[in-house]
């Protein structure tokens, strides 16, 4: 945000997708008080929106999930400019201008979104910090970790922003967003963030989102095209069947191997510690291009290699030590370790980041795929073990992710979560699906 363009800031920052919605009840004149009362009652009811199953899940007592995002800036942050920008963008979004209301009645508690007046001063915190503090990086980590232990205030919309004008090793100032996950998933929130920004080359223009290019098949038609299509369908059916069997087994009895990475029962409810390290995206792209894979493949492979080295050190000195003669290193990792992770996947028909206008249009025309939490998850196994060639970790990661792409496991987990929450409640889903 450039201070030299404050005069046109309010005009340029408002995008069509964030303009207030005009209703007929705001201009229509009513002949009788009875008609006016009925209209007011109808308008009050329309201002309330029931929580979706995914939103109820994220408000479950054992799974009250909040998104914490730290954004570094090259210059000191002006709180006045930020507040003005929030008033013209974020506060105009329907989900960010509603608060959570819990109605207690004879049938039990029901939660709804209710429209409210938003005061930006109640959502922006600017602590008075010492710019010459000894360890600013440690302070930022402690500050973000402390935010994870403080629940959001339910009397106002469930989002807030903290401005930390302190110089770290990576930035001149830090802005920390805290948003309840019930407001939206990563694809929705990143789309909204992009809609609140402008190009540095043209401060009046929204950032452009590159179109996602699909890799085409060499067999575009004829016999080989039909054969390739049928083979792909058969692979999808087989992979999905295998994944669903493993998915059901995981819900019932299949557990990961007990390793130093696996905590004891109840560890998921303990306070968390946030520690971050900056990794060069150029280095990741270099590996990606050299190995002809995606960024996710590269990160998965590096994570796999890091976990293997960590476990090898943890198991050092154990009686199961095996001398690896080829590389001269001791392989202390027990064989046949089952180690898996739950990876969230966007299940919208249009993958990747969409423009906010498209996302909000989908919300009005097809709520099933519009704004909100439209995420499934897949159970991704890690291949744990030392490798003679470090690139083998990358190859195995790519092979596993490519296989998961030809599976409907994420779509199944999304719809099964909705069904379980509707039939048995969010608490049952948290216990059986997420806290095992």
TrEMBL record:
Mode of membrane association: Single-pass membrane protein
Sorted UniProt keywords: Acyltransferase, Cell membrane, Endoplasmic reticulum, Membrane, Transferase, Transmembrane, Transmembrane helix
GO MF term list: diacylglycerol O-acyltransferase activity; long-chain-alcohol O-fatty-acyltransferase activity
Keyword Cell membrane: yes
Catalytic reaction equation(s): a long chain fatty alcohol + a fatty acyl-CoA = a long-chain alcohol wax ester + CoA; an acyl-CoA + a 1,2-diacyl-sn-glycerol = a triacyl-sn-glycerol + CoA
Xref: Pfam families: WS_DGAT_C, WS_DGAT_cat
SUPFAM superfamilies named among the record's database cross-references: CoA-dependent acyltransferases
Positions of region (Disordered): 1-52
Comp. bias regions, Polar residues: 1-13
The name this protein goes by in its record: O-acyltransferase WSD1-like isoform X4
Species of provenance: Populus euphratica (Euphrates poplar)
């Amino acid at each position: 945000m450039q201070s030299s363009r404050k005069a046109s800031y309010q005009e340029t920052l408002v995008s069509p997708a964030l303009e207030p919605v005009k209703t007929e009840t705001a201009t229509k004149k009513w002949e009788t008080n009875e008609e006016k009362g009925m209209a007011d009652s109808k308008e009050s009811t329309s201002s309330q929106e029931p929580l979706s199953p995914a939103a109820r899940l994220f408000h479950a007592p054992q799974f009250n999930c909040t998104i914490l995002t730290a954004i570094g800036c090259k210059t000191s942050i002006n709180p006045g400019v930020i507040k003005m920008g929030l008033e013209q963008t974020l506060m105009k979004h329907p989900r960010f201008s509603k608060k959570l209301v819990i109605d207690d009645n004879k049938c039990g508690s029901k939660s709804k979104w209710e429209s409210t007046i938003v005061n930006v001063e109640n959502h922006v915190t600017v602590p008075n910090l010492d710019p010459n503090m000894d360890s600013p990086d440690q302070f930022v980590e402690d500050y973000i970790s402390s935010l994870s232990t403080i629940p959001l205030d339910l009397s106002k919309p469930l989002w807030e922003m903290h401005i930390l004008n302190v110089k770290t090793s990576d930035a001149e100032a830090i802005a920390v967003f805290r948003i309840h996950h019930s407001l939206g998933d990563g694809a929705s929130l990143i789309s909204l963030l992009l809609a609140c920004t402008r190009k540095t080359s043209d401060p009046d223009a929204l950032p452009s989102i590159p179109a996602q290019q699909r890799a085409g098949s060499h067999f575009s038609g004829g016999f080989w095209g039909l054969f390739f299509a049928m083979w792909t369908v058969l692979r999808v059916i087989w992979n999905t069947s295998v994944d669903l069997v493993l998915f059901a087994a995981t819900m019932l009895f299949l557990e990961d191997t007990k390793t130093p990475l696996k905590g004891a029962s109840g560890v998921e409810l303990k306070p968390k510690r946030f520690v971050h390290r900056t990794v060069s995206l150029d280095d990741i792209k270099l590996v990606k291009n050299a190995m002809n894979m995606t960024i996710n493949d590269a990160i998965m492979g590096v994570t796999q290699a890091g976990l293997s080295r960590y476990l090898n050190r943890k198991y050092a000195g154990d009686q199961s030590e095996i001398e690896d003669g080829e590389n001269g290193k001791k392989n202390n990792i027990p064989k046949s370790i089952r180690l898996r992770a739950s990876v969230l996947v966007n299940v919208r028909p249009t993958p990747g980041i969409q423009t906010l206008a498209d996302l909000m249009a989908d919300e009005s025309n097809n709520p099933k795929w519009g704004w909100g939490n439209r995420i499934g998850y897949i159970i991704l196994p890690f291949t744990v073990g030392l490798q003679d060639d470090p690139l083998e970790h990358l190859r195995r990661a790519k092979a596993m992710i490519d296989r998961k792409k030809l599976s409907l496991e994420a779509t199944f987990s999304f719809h099964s979560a909705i069904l379980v929450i509707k039939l048995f409640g969010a608490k049952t889903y948290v216990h059986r699906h997420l806290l095992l």
